């Protein structure tokens, strides 16, 4: 009865895309995680498992198989969360009586402090893009990632209508399609204006179809998340810092530098689009550690 699982997976993905407004990235992860579980059932007993056959014992057995595959704690937790959510949907649709993944404890995640770049490193990074067609675009991208603290998916989702250059803010759609308005600083505004004036019109002409996307690739089509990561990687390699730097690192740097300079936690939470203040509080630990390091290195009696 594996085909029943596949059919209900499709229904579930349609549901979370429509009713829950989850991001395409989340939908992709859920699909992959649940399909992996369906493959596990198929290997155990091809075609034999109905929806109601899966119990807590089988759920634990699946978790054990994931652990034996040496997945990270974070990946294990995501797998269980995906399956718990899927089975919650099946319960709501009265297709199963109980959720077999409710009793499965997710592995405790190690709390890792966000990595960030120092202000001099940020300054050096943002000076690297050349004054070329794509260089002007790249600088605008990095200025916005750092200057507004947006997620990479939020950046690639920006349209021309999401910009207000006069009032100096952008409108982004975050997780769960939640809107938020973010002010942008003069350096980001300047980089955007140069890109909009000197690069975007030329990039747009390379594509027969008109697009409203803010950031375009060399073919004139909307830039993807992966392309943004590649853009940043290129300049990070040139910078030669001994840190793993991703678009999210610039977001972390944005939050850390705000707190370092006296911004209150609630305001930073709103700017980042965090639902929970606990998520934002991670950055206070980073700032506290920096202060402690400064004290120990600078005070004669530390």
Q: Give me the strand/helix succession.
A: HHHHHHHEEEHHHHHH
CATH architecture of the largest domain: Orthogonal Bundle
* Fraction in beta strands: under 5%
What does the average pLDDT come to? Answer: 86
| CATH structural fold name of the largest domain | hpI Integrase, Chain A
- Give the spatial strand order of the biggest sheet: 1-2-3
Summarize this structure as a short list of keywords or feature phrases.
302 residues; globular; DNA polymerase, domain 1; mainly alpha; hpI Integrase, Chain A; three-stranded antiparallel β-sheet
Describe the structure.
The chain is built from 13 helices and three strands. 59% of the residues lie in helices and 4% in strands. It is globular, with a radius of gyration of 23 Å. The chain folds into two domains: 2-92, DNA polymerase, domain 1, CATH 1.10.150; 119-298, hpI Integrase, Chain A (Orthogonal Bundle). The protein has a three-stranded antiparallel β-sheet with strand order 1-2-3, with no helix packed on it. With 302 residues, it is mainly alpha-helical.
């Amino acid at each position: 009865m594996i085909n029943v699982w596949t059919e209900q997976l499709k229904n579930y993905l349609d549901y979370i895309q429509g009713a829950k407004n989850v991001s395409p990235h989340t939908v992709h992860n859920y699909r992959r995680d649940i399909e992996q579980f369906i493959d596990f059932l198929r290997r155990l007993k091809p075609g034999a498992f109905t929806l109601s056959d899966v119990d807590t014992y089988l759920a634990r057995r699946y978790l054990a198989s994931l652990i034996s595959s040496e997945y990270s704690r974070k990946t294990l937790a995501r797998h269980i969360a995906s399956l718990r959510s899927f089975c919650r949907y099946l319960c709501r649709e009265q297709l199963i009586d109980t959720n077999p993944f409710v009793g499965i404890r997710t592995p405790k995640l190690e709390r890792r402090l966000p990595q960030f770049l120092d202000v001099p490193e940020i300054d050096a990074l943002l000076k690297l893009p050349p004054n070329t067609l794509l260089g002007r675009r790249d600088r605008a991208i990095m200025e916005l990632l750092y200057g507004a603290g947006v997620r990479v998916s939020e950046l690639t989702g920006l349209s021309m209508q999401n910009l207000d250059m006069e009032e100096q803010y952008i409108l982004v759609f975050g997780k769960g399609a939640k809107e938020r308005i973010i002010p942008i600083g003069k350096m980001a505004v300047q980089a955007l204006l140069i890109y909009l004036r000197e690069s975007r019109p030329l990039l747009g002409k390379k594509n027969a179809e008109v697009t409203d996307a803010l950031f375009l690739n060399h073919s004139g089509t909307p830039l993807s998340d992966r392309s943004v990561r590649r853009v940043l990687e290129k300049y990070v390699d040139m910078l030669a810092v001994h840190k793993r730097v991703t678009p999210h690192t610039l977001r972390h740097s944005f939050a850390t530098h705000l707190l370092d300079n006296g911004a209150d936690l609630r305001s930073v939470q709103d700017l980042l689009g965090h639902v929970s203040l606990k998520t934002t509080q991670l950055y206070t630990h980073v700032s506290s550690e920096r202060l402690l390091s400064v004290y120990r290195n600078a005070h004669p009696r530390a």
